[in-house]
Amino acid sequence: MNDTIDCKLPFEVPFIASFKLPIWMLMLYIFLSSLFLLTFLLLLNESIILSLLTLVFEFSFSYFVMMIFLKKFYVEITNEFIKVRHIFVNKTAYWNDVVGIGFLPNNNITYGVVTKEKLLRQQQFLTRLIDILFSHGPCALVIPLALLPHIDIDRLILTIENKIVIQDV
């Protein structure tokens, strides 16, 4: 009889998981960028205002695409800290400051890390209101799990949970 137990083990630290852009998405970005540039060239003779708007949109789109390629999203877990780098944000939380973890409310694809500093900021009404409206509430770090489809999410969460348990001892 072949009984196998599906036992998941945490990742070895240091662990780095990064976003890998699929080739079809890269081709789509190149196609759209070329399309915007062609639209700019065609509208150049028609309307200067419309062509300038197209050019501004093209530069914004190109900047965003280049940020995706140059500053890839990644999660780094070491014995001292967890670090999350998004396109525009680079945040680090040390394990001795982490007080809680879990999925964001009404969102099963974003994992949040709550720190002591963020909880202290939540005690002020205005800061709490701003955090609720413009960020992820009490979470200092957020990990969008949809950007890591090639990583075993259960093992990633187990690794984070083990680091918090070890620091509590």
A few lines on this structure:
With 169 residues, this protein is an alpha+beta fold. Helices cover 45% and strands 21% of the residues.
Order of helices and strands: EHHEEEEEHHEH
N→C terminal distance: 40 Å
Secondary structure category: alpha+beta
User: Any idea what the shape is?
Assistant: globular
Percent range for β-strand residues: 15-25%
Kindly report the spatial arrangement of strands forming the biggest sheet.
1-2-3-4
Structural domain tally: 2
Biggest sheet overview: 4 strands, antiparallel
Please count the helical segments.
5
Residues in helix, %: 40-55%
As an assembly, this protein is single chain
Keywords:
45% helix, alpha+beta, three-stranded antiparallel β-sheet, 169 residues, 21% strand, four-stranded antiparallel β-sheet, 2 domains
